[in-house]
Amino acid sequence: MTDSARPPRLRFAPSPTGYLHVGGARTALFNWLYARHNGGKFLLRIEDTDKLRSTDESTRAIFEGMEWLGLDWDEDVVYQGASLERHRADAMRMLDAGLAYRCFCTPEELEVRRKTAAAGHETFKYDRRCDRLLPDEVQERLDRSDAFVVRFRIPEGTTEWDDLVHERIAFPNKDLDDFVILRSNATPIYNLAVVSDDIAMGVTVVMRGDDHISNTPKQILLYRALGAELPTFAHLPMIHGMDGKKLSKRHGATAVGDYQHQGLLPTAMLNFLALLGWSPGGDREVMTVPEMIELFTPAGLQKKAAIFDPKKLEWMNGQHLSITPLAELEPYVTPAILAAGLADEATLAARREWYFDLLDLLRVRSRTIDDIVRQAGPYFLPHIDFDPEAVARNWKDPEAAADLLAKVSQTLASVDPWEPGPLETVLRGLAESLGIAAGKVFQPLRVALTGLTVSPGIFEVLVAMGRDLALARISDATDWLRRAADSK
Prior knowledge:
Layout: E1 9-12, H1 22-37, E2 41-46, H2 56-69, E3 78-79, H3 84-96, E4 100-103, H4 107-119, H5 135-143, E5 149-152, E6 158-163, E7 167-172, E8 180-182, H6 190-201, E9 205-209, H7 216-225, E10 232-236, E11 239-240, H8 256-260, H9 266-274, H10 289-295, E12 306-307, H11 310-323, H12 326-339, H13 345-350, H14 352-362, H15 369-380, H16 388-394, H17 398-413, H18 420-434, H19 439-450, H20 458-465, H21 467-486
Helix pairs in contact: 1-10, 3-6, 6-7, 9-11, 12-15, 17-18, 17-19, 17-21, 18-19, 18-20, 19-21
């Protein structure tokens, strides 16, 4: 195992054959948190040996997803495909040391043996026939340029390790096959490439999904065969959808990039991902990134599968919208405001203090950045649409509603200063003079100002809009109601 006195070195090693998915991002995060908590290094390796499926576009998507989440790596990115010569050299070292052997069996021959085993209801296992070839027979085949793979010879005994998540895990070596480490075209199999790269990168902790548990005994044997120190292993639980099945596209968005464009904050995504298979203890859920770094230890890693709940993610995002300092929140909201055509950069810059106050007002009832943008429209647009449900609920009698709003406008026109206290005084006074509950004034007014039934407090809305825009909104609503009454 690793020397606990040394700063740990961890890596995230995705294959660039698709987007950065939720499971990969969670794995990257846990490695990053472990490294940051312990003053270690977090490394990034792109496992691009599958040239047919690896693409530059996927590599870019991985980088973009990592950068959006803020999971920075500490050294130059390692590309696995650039290390083929070392992979081959490591295979040859094991071959020369008698720990591996050349196998000349053709794929067709192996397939026949697999079918024979299946017909006899037996598990196919390579019978080591090529390991029994005499040196002269091997040389003769090499002289004929017969194709061969290199197989690792499984020793007797048991391969076991202390897993940070699952504690002691043991595999009887008799259950392992003499697996291929080098293909007939001299390219490495996954297990060899991973071990060779991890040794070269000085990786001391290998933290990955528990679907890799079956690979671990093979990799441990390769570490030993290459005379390298074993890393500490940690196998994280799978992530399931709400139906209890492995998370996939049928459950909705599974790419980190999708959430980046759905109005989510990266800090909220990190917080949500951190709780998929780890607990800081107690009932604590909402955490900043520094808090996650401080609290992250392997003791909190869980064995059972984690459940990806999109509603919980949206709730978490709402929490982070509320706690994120406005100066940090603004760069995420402003591009969405601009894209919606609500304002231009010059307007927002000229009214910066007002704009920050507005963001502070709107984020309280928002779960996504898109929610903030939807609520922001009435404070920027010259005219708004009225939600039909809001109209049906609060303007049932158009003529009466128009008369009420006309009285509201007349009452508000003389308010000075335009502040919550005086506004509340005059509007409650109006309701009292009309002999109705204050809500019977506030709700029709809310629809006139925002077009919606739900908004921040009515006095806060009035202050944020300002006298001129608020009175213009009420005038527009009154005209709309008069036309609706006339058309009946």
